[in-house]
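Chapter review. Work through the record for Thaumatin before attempting the end-of-chapter questions.
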Amino acid sequence: MEFHQLAYALLLAINLIHGVHSAVFTIKNNCPYNIAPATLTGSGASASTTGFQLASGASNNINIPTPWSGRVWARFECSNDGGRFHCNSGDCGSGQVACNGAGAIPPATLAEFTIGGSNGKDTYDVSLVDGFNLPVSIVPQGGCATSDCPVDINAQCPSQFAVRNGSGATIGCKSACVQFGTPQYCCTGDHNTPSTCPPTDYSRFFKNLCPKAYSYAYDDPSSTFTCNTGANYVITFCP
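Structure tokens for Thaumatin:
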């Protein structure tokens, strides 16, 4: 039995013994380089980890107590120079591999969840509201719909939204809200309703490439998915 399978079985056994309701997130790295996945809890008890490193081709299981809401993302181009952990893309600014309650610095592709929500349902989505840094997919184990953004948007990012590393390679693509910060694109102020904050050419750029992902704040109908509470989820970066 592979290590991640053994860990998964152990988590399930612990939950059965103690009567704890939880979900297991299996996080896979299909990227051709190392990444550092992270979690941020919005409500509920914290996930079993707030950040870890993951080699190319590896996977790791984390335990999510229910009810829980939060997000998962991945950092890359990371280093530990001078004892301070830092990533060029998706960094949380903690200075450590663990993010310890800090969120991603945009742009970052977010896998968002509410586990054990109302009416015995989980909800989940892939969000590009804060921009894009890595392709990702969410695959529930149990037949529910997949949510994903499998395209490398960095390769097509308009130059004005591109975030580049020291070598000039694009490692992130900002959303219009992150780039301009105005109510028109952030759906705030007098643009805080679906009728006053419709899609824009900028959000359509993301939507055309990743139809199942949130392209801006009011992109709910085609971007939010549900599954019965009790499902486990595989989150794959660079699917």
